[in-house]
């Protein structure tokens, strides 16, 4: 019975009747009824008509007069941020007129909305068309004030996402008056990153990331020679027997780690991704890619990041990590062909180069012939895939999908499940990268 009372039997008529949910529309109908009663039945209907018109006029004029002298600006005190991490923001408001402004709200530009929500708002005018950031009880007349708050971005991007506004509908909520907010600085929000400390150790495989070079001197591996101490050298590498023989400080020269290049390929095809917002497989794929790239760059490895048809070379260091954050924060998905990911992953590469693909279970099923590893493929080409799977909750499901698609890891699409990627990555480094699988 309850379902029948709440079921929408005529959804096609919503766009024609939803305006009746507005208080202004209801008061207008009541005023019209009072006018008809005053004309046809009794003069007391005019009192009802006049009272309702006065209430409507108050609800429309008051917000317009209150907002006439308001000027506002917003700026972020932090230039960079990440998903789920608080950032400081500052709203400055100046009221030039002597009367106060009540019920002031900051809206728009801070919380991303999905396409389905925007389509629903077009049909249902009773739903709010902008997300409320926060509200102020009162801004006194002839005053300037700054309001600082902690803003927690839900999704990557350049904030504010759209032009923010300050608005009020005080005192009756019949009419809303708004002013645009001047944006003085923006916040660049990158995908959430988890720390992946594990990396493969050198075990003799041709594609090991820990390979050492005899042609370059460094601080790793075996001793390849000696030389006199130079200004700035560490005393930890002093060769004491040679120092005692020559009567001066002699340093040991060891092997240097080769600068390996790792290709990280992300599948951006729209038909391979599901979900909306920060729970979508696309956003989770970018978070996984950012975490893998951060881990590799932190270990002084060069990375080639392939996003659809776009290739970006990242050298090791902090500058490369900032470049990675900027790239993923402002990435606009161009919906490449479904074969782009498989083509990039199957591209011929040097035997010492590792290639990590990041896709979904839909992408793996679509390109199973190319993505599923063959016997000995990891050892010969150093290639593997990380899969994002929506709706998985148990370890058994992950193991089944991992064996079915021949993937290194299977990660849930939920942003909170990104922490489960850490032990899975450690298992990959221990078992797959070091050749024990």
From TrEMBL:
Transmembrane segment boundaries: 24-41, 47-65
Keywords attached to this entry: Membrane, Transmembrane, Transmembrane helix
DUF58 domain: residues covered: 227-339
InterPro entries given in the database record: DUF58 (IPR002881)
Matches recorded under PANTHER family: SLR1927 PROTEIN (PTHR34351:SF1), SLR1927 PROTEIN-RELATED (PTHR34351)
Name of the protein described by the UniProt record: DUF58 domain-containing protein
Organism: Pirellula staleyi (strain ATCC 27377 / DSM 6068 / ICPB 4128) (Pirella staleyi)
């Amino acid at each position: 019975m309850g379902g029948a009372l709440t079921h929408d039997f005529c959804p096609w008529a919503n766009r024609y009747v939803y305006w009746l949910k507005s208080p202004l529309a209801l008061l207008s109908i009541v005023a019209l009824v009072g006018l008809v009663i005053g004309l046809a039945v009794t003069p007391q209907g005019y009192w009802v008509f006049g009272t309702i018109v006065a209430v409507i006029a108050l609800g429309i004029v008051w917000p317009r007069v209150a907002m006439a002298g308001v000027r506002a600006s917003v700026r972020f005190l932090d230039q960079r941020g990440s998903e789920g991490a608080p950032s400081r923001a500052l709203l400055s408001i100046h009221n030039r007129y002597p009367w106060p402004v009540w019920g002031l709200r900051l809206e728009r530009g801070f919380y991303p909305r999905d396409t389905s929500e925007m389509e629903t708002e077009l049909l249902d005018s009773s739903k709010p068309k902008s997300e409320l950031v926060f509200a102020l009880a009162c801004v006194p007349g002839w005053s300037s004030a700054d309001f600082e708050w902690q803003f927690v971005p839900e999704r990557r991007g350049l904030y504010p996402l759209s032009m923010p506004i300050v608005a009020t509908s005080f005192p009756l909520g019949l009419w809303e008056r708004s002013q645009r907010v001047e944006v003085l600085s923006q916040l660049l929000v990158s995908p959430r990153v988890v720390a992946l400390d594990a990396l493969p150790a050198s075990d003799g495989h041709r594609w090991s990331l820990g390979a050492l070079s005899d042609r370059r001197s460094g601080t790793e591996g075996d001793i390849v020679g000696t030389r006199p101490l130079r200004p700035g050298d560490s005393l930890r590498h002093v060769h004491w027997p040679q120092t005692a023989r020559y009567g001066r400080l002699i340093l040991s020269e060891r092997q240097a780690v080769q600068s390996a290049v790792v290709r990280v390929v992300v599948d951006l095809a729209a038909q391979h991704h599901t979900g909306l917002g920060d729970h979508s497989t696309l956003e989770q794929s970018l978070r996984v890619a950012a975490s893998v790239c951060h881990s590799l760059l932190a270990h002084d490895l060069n990375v080639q990041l392939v996003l659809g048809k776009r290739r970006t070379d990242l050298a090791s260091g902090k500058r490369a990590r900032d470049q990675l954050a900027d790239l993923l924060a402002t990435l606009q998905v161009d919906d490449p062909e479904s074969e782009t990911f498989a083509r990039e992953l199957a591209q011929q590469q040097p035997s010492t180069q590792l290639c990590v693909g990041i896709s979904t279970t839909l992408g793996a099923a679509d390109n199973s012939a190319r993505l599923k590893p063959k016997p000995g493929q990891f050892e010969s080409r150093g290639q593997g895939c990380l899969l994002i799977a929506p709706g998985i909750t148990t370890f058994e499901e992950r193991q089944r999908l991992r064996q079915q698609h021949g993937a290194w890891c299977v990660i849930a699409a939920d942003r909170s499940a990104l922490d489960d990627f850490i032990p899975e990555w450690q298992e990959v480094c221990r078992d797959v990268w070091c050749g024990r699988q």
